[in-house]
Amino acid sequence: MRFTTPLRYPGGKGKLTNYILKLIDINGLNGCDYVEPYAGGAGVAINLLLAGKATNVHLNDLNTAIYCFWHSILEETEGFCSLIDSTPVTMVEWYKNKDIIANQANYSALEIGFATFFLNRTNRSGILLGGVIGGKEQSGKWKLDARFNKPDLINRINIIASKKANIHIYNQDAKLFLDTVVSKFKKDTLIYLDPPYYVKGKGLYQNHYGHEDHLSIAKTIKQNNMHPWIVSYDNTEEINDMYSGLRKVEYGINYSAQSRYQGPEVIFFCDSITIPDDSNPSKVKL
């Protein structure tokens, strides 16, 4: 399925869309509500909504910059798209938007949301605190506008905004979100948790986790016997210990953070869910 989210994300799980579409079908969850406590680029969520497989999607992210992006494209769509159209993709703008992210208290949600988008599209691997594509001297093979196709990005945002009535956004700690918001959702709500990587999270995400944070979220989701859920992670010994006893699928997924390589990944499943019969969830064909 075509990748529709406007945000690039390290380890983004858009390639799992077909696998989750299949999971929804074989578990009788068509038209369900769908939840991502760690929304990020929300690649799977937007794909499921546009495919009609999810009636509503609930996107939560503790990172205020990411939240402001989603809020802005849904609530200030015209202004956001106007900024895309009128803003030159230059190093002057890169420095300007980098300063906005570093000093968010001084700016509006629209300014923060656009700065998040600008840096995401112009930085290597979409990492907000990462380096610019082509380097600050713009001497590399690719320049900072290499991932900034304005008409395509405006089109993606307008398509998403047309579904705003079915997109609900939150800016909470994931555990609090699960405990206080998701716990009240109907039973056929599918939850997909994609927490920060255990090993490389600190270098990729502004809101990375320590060991105890990963352990806390594992305990919380394993106690949820009401909703079907899946969890994806980097495949480490520590994570496997936290989710021991659960069924899992191990696989490789291509992602880029400075360089492209096959990263070992794992998906864990709650006891009530039927698992699709596919050895590599990132390569499912429908």
From TrEMBL:
UniProt keyword annotation of 4Fe-4S present: no
Keywords attached to this entry: Methyltransferase, S-adenosyl-L-methionine, Transferase
Top-level taxonomic group: Bacteria
Gene Ontology molecular function terms on file: methyltransferase activity
InterPro entries, sorted: Ade_MeTrfase_dom_2 (IPR023095), M_m6A_EcoRV (IPR012263), MeTrfase_D12 (IPR012327), SAM-dependent_MTases_sf (IPR029063)
Pfam family, one: MethyltransfD12
Protein family (similarity comment): Belongs to the N(4)/N(6)-methyltransferase family.
PANTHER family in UniProt: DNA ADENINE METHYLASE, SITE-SPECIFIC DNA-METHYLTRANSFERASE (ADENINE-SPECIFIC)
Top-level class of the enzyme under EC nomenclature: transferase
Record's catalysed reaction(s): a 2'-deoxyadenosine in DNA + S-adenosyl-L-methionine = an N(6)-methyl-2'-deoxyadenosine in DNA + S-adenosyl-L-homocysteine + H(+)
Keyword Transit peptide (UniProt): no
One biological process term in Gene Ontology: methylation
Name used for this protein in its record: site-specific DNA-methyltransferase (adenine-specific)
E.C. number(s) listed in UniProt: 2.1.1.72
